[in-house]
TrEMBL record:
Gene behind the chain: truB
Domain tRNA pseudouridylate synthase B C-terminal: from-to ranges: 179-217
Catalytic-site annotation from UniProt: D45 (nucleophile)
Gene3D superfamilies xrefs: Pseudouridine synthase (3.30.2350.10)
Coiled coil (residue ranges): none
Taxonomic path: Bacteria, Bacteria division CPR2
GO molecular function (one): tRNA pseudouridine(55) synthase activity
The protein's name: tRNA pseudouridine synthase B
Catalytic activity reported: uridine(55) in tRNA = pseudouridine(55) in tRNA
């Protein structure tokens, strides 16, 4: 089969599985298609799943910026009973004492997060501080000073809740950190909060339904 999207020659939509880095998917595409110039348009953390746009060929890798600025949608599961140093399952998990909130309280809190706001990128993120990645400084035990950035949360919808696990769906502007959103939701509920699952379902007009498994690349 030809894995390149029929409407976008040189653009490949992958449904990234959990446990793999975005770079490993790029390397697999490069190897299987025997094309040296391959890149991606927006990384996903190894624990996350969902839509990863791969750009194949020199001309297409130049278009990365056009994809990076698009809005994105995610489905996420938040554990309200604990915190994580990284905001995800890769960090040090610490249990917290928490009175389980009601579904009504959760729905009300979620609505408070919709709209334009300032969000400080996670200290375990790839944002650069004086040329250094924030996560590298954090791993060295440093506390990097990170400037907040303007983001927009267009929608933040309740999916399901069975304490401690809260599932949400959100549409956000480019540059929004869902890990930070999960932590902030937990704080607003006077609980813990970190992502146990994260799935990207769209990037702009491109949907996860258009994606294929890495195993289908031939």
């Amino acid at each position: 089969m030809n894995p390149l999207n029929k409407h976008n020659k040189g653009i490949l939509f992958i449904d990234k599985p959990s446990g793999r880095s975005s770079f490993s998917i790029v390397a697999e595409v490069r190897r299987k298609l025997d094309i040296k110039k391959v890149g991606h348009a927006g990384t996903l953390d190894p624990f996350a799943t969902g839509l990863l746009i791969i750009l194949v060929g020199k001309e297409n890798t130049k278009k990365a910026a056009a994809f990076l600025g698009k809005n994105k949608t995610y489905e996420a599961t938040i554990d309200l009973s604990s915190t994580s140093t990284t905001g995800d399952p890769e960090g040090e998990i610490v249990k917290v004492s928490c009175q389980p909130p009601s579904q009504e309280e959760i729905v009300n809190v979620l609505k408070q997060f919709e709209g334009e706001q300032l969000q400080k990128p996670h200290m375990f993120s790839a944002v650069k501080i004086k040329g250094e990645r924030a996560y590298k400084l954090a791993r060295e035990g440093k506390q990097p000073e990170i400037e907040p950035k303007k983001i927009i949360i267009y929608k933040l919808d309740f999916i399901s809740y069975n304490f401690p696990f809260l599932r949400i769906k959100t549409k956000v502007s480019s540059g929004t950190y869902i890990r930070v959103l999960a932590e902030d939701i937990g704080k607003a509920l006077y609980c813990g909060g970190y992502l146990t699952e994260l799935r990207r379902t769209s990037i702009g007009e491109f949907k996860i339904e258009e994606a294929i498994s890495p195993d289908d690349i031939k």
